[in-house]
Amino acid sequence: MEKVIITGGTGYIGSHTVVEFLNAGFETIIIDNLVNSKIEVLSGIEKICKRKPVFYQEDITDISAIQKIFEEHKDAVAVIHFAAYKSVGESVENPLKYYHNNIQGLVNLLRKMQNTGVKNLVFSSSCTVYGQPEKLPVTEKSPVIKPESPYGNTKKINEEIIEDTIKTNSEINCISLRYFNPIGAHPSAEIGEFPLGVPDNLLPYITQTAIGLREKLSVFGNDYNTPDGTAIRDYINVVDLAKAHVIAVNRLLEKKNKDRLEVFNIGTGEGVSVMEVIRSFEKVSNQKLNYKITGRRPGDIEKVWADTTKANKILGWKAEKTLDETILSAWEWEKKIRNKS
Ligand code: UD1
Predict the structure, then answer these.
(1) Under a CB-based contact definition with an 8 Å cutoff, are residues 48 and 54 in contact?
(2) I need a surface site. Which of 231, 310, 337, 339 has the fewest CB within 10 A?
(3) Can you tell me the distance from the alpha carbon of 109 to that of 118, in angstroms, rounded to the nearest whole number?
(4) 6-25: pLDDT as tens digits
């Protein structure tokens, strides 16, 4: 059984990706310090897959801990790297926390990859590297700019670090997946998004409002240059997104990659406004959402959605789930964790 190391494997995207690797017959080794996730996620994964991931509660910024894990698992065929902080607002307040964790973690992993036989990397990047693109949909050839937030900048710098490292090390190959906005939960409702504290992101805020944990959703601005005035994003189902990682690892294992660093947009290709997300939620949950229009959130861009032609053609990957079924999966998960299903 081929083995993959998944950093951040108990997190939101990480846990769904662990499930897809287990389903595809891989052995999974999770490294996660549980700073932004819960140990119970492992039971959720086991319920879905009837198999257990190997789990290390370690911090990837701790080089000696990483060293031990890589020694034990030097037969791993790839690293899938998720472990990173991801709150845009917090990164503006505390940039050094983000630069330390998100940069040092990757540097440690690359060091260990250089010293061991683990040579394939799938990196968790973001559409944030495009900022507000001039042309939509945004392709992988669009210019990468200095993102608005330190969080976004860590993703851009990480891609640069990988590029520079690959130039000097002829054995490491990487696929960087630039995610648009991941939402939803596993259809089993055994795993999903579990924000600690007040959610920053739209969909968990909606489901927490609907379940009664938050009073009302603030819609950040309705004066954008979009059909209904609210901002537009490309919301990608987290299970669809997770599947792209398995395809990426197989591509590297089969040595089908054309460059040693390949970049792919992972989105649906559809732009959806905040109001459209709310309407979809109201439809699938059969209830009205309490919301109010407020001012724009500083740092938000107006609109972005992906050109996914490259991922569709070269990876043979395509988003499959509809917006409604994805939002319903998030709602089922919210009800389950609050014992209200
Ligand atoms: C941002 C980052 C993305 C990152 C993600 C992780 C950018 C461009 N995007 O996504 O790279 O992966 O955070 O956290 O930096 N909204 C409301 N009310 C709310 C919450 C959100 O109206 O309470 C609106 C936002 O203004 C935005 C949309 O919903 O238009 C999506 O927001 P959010 O879910 O926070 O994601 P992004 O900011 O797009």
Answers:
(1) no
(2) 339
(3) 10
(4) 999 999 999 999 999 999 99
CB atoms within 10 A of CB 137: 18
Helices (H), 24-176: 41-49, 63-72, 88-93, 95-115, 150-168
Which domain covers residue 88, as residue numbers?
3-184+235-266
Number of folded domains in the chain?
Answer: 1
Question: Across-strand partners of 126?
Answer: 179
Is residue 199 domain-resident? no
Ligand 1 binding site (Cβ under 6 Å of any ligand atom): 86, 88, 126-128, 152, 181, 200-202, 205, 217-220, 231, 233, 274, 297, 300-301
Q: Which atom of ligand 1 is nearest to the CA of 301?
A: 8
Task: Tell whether 242 is covered by a domain.
Answer: yes
Q: 82 in a domain, yes or no?
A: yes
Q: Are 252 and 239 in contact (CB under 8 A)?
A: no
For residues 329 and 186, the answer to whether their CB atoms sit within 8 Å is: yes
3-state secondary structure of 89: helix
Q: What per-residue confidence (pLDDT) applies to 195?
A: 92
Helix (H) or strand (E) holding 179: strand 173-179
Q: Using CA atoms, how far apart are residues 93 and 166, in angstroms rounded to an integer?
A: 32
Cβ–Cβ under 8 Å, residues 61 and 33: no
The token pair that represents 206 in the structure block: 């909606």
Report the 10 Å Cβ neighbour count for 38: 14
Q: From CA 234, how far away is CA 211, in angstroms rounded? A: 25
The torsion angles phi and psi of 249, rounded to 5 degrees, stand at -65, -45
The pLDDT of 21-38, averaged and rounded, is 97
Mean pLDDT of the 103-132 span: 96
Q: Which ligand 1 atom sits nearest the alpha carbon of residue 230?
A: 30
| Per-residue confidence (pLDDT) for residue 341, from 0 to 100 | 61
Assess if residue 205 is contained within a domain: no
Residues annotated as catalytic are 151
CATH of the domain at 88: 3.40.50.720
